[in-house]
């Protein structure tokens, strides 16, 4: 349904360890799903830790 160009993944903040879901765009950039951030860190360093296996190529 139009989501062919995006995928979801679990990500963590390298500063505080908070885990959330991010949306990965075709250019490789990503952002927390449905919000601008998922932790209170001033400049969080998000790292993708798991992608949805159903959406992998």
TrEMBL record:
Superkingdom: Archaea
Protein name (database record): Uncharacterized protein
Organism: Natrinema limicola JCM 13563
Species lineage: Archaea, Methanobacteriati, Methanobacteriota, Stenosarchaea group, Halobacteria
């Amino acid at each position: 349904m139009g989501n062919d160009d995006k995928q979801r993944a679990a990500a963590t903040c390298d500063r505080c360890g908070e885990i959330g879901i991010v949306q990965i765009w075709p250019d490789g950039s990503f952002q927390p799903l449905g919000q601008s951030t998922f932790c209170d860190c001033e400049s969080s360093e998000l790292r993708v830790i798991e992608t949805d296996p159903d959406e992998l190529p």
